[in-house]
Amino acid sequence: MTAALHPIGEPLLVTAGRESGQAARRTVRERAAKVLADAEALDDVELMAAEAIANAVLHGSGLIRVAVRGGDRRVRVEVRDGGPTPREEGAHHRLDHGRGLAVIDALAAEWGLEQSPDETNLWFTVEAPAP
Fold first, then answer.
1. Which of 22, 116, 119 is nearest to 65 (CA)?
2. N or C: which end of the chain has fewer CB within 10 A?
3. Interval 67-78: pLDDT, tens
């Protein structure tokens, strides 16, 4: 049975600005460091947080909320927004987009994407390497 994960700090509120996303990514790493001591695992957390926040900025709406939970050598990061934005008619879809979920899939112990018209929740977990 997996131990309960507890909030590490209050949820972060992120706007679509670049500086806000960078600050959130660093804060997620700092909070994860309270549970994970491995530098490589922390690099992974920071990279996945950056990808998840970028997805929320590009594809979501409303304020972005980032929560970090941890315990028992595990960290879970959740990035929520106000749901998908309708694609502009005739908008050009760039071929270099869409790698964020592939990065998260490759690095996370577990991850998921829950979406409704009113909310998108992209979450992932990272586990500390065995001692």
1. 119
2. N
3. 999 998 999 999
Closest C-alpha among 67, 54, 64, 57 to residue 104: 54
Among 129, 122, 130, which residue's Cα sits nearest to residue 42? Answer: 129
The beta strands (E) that lie in 8-127 are given as: 12-14, 64-71, 74-81, 110-115, 120-127
The token duo for 101 is 């979920």
Helix (H, G, I), strand (E, B) or coil at 42: helix
Cα three-residue angle 10-43-21, rounded to 5 degrees: 50
**Token reading at 97:** 């987009």
Query: At residue 46, what is the residue type?
Result: E
Reported as type and span, the H/E element at residue 79 is strand 74-81
pTM greater than 0.85 (yes/no): yes
C-alpha–C-alpha distance, residues 20 and 38, integer Å: 25
* pLDDT tens sequence across 3-51: 789 999 999 999 877 788 899 999 999 999 999 999 999 999 999 999 9
Residue 116 in tokens? 């409704």
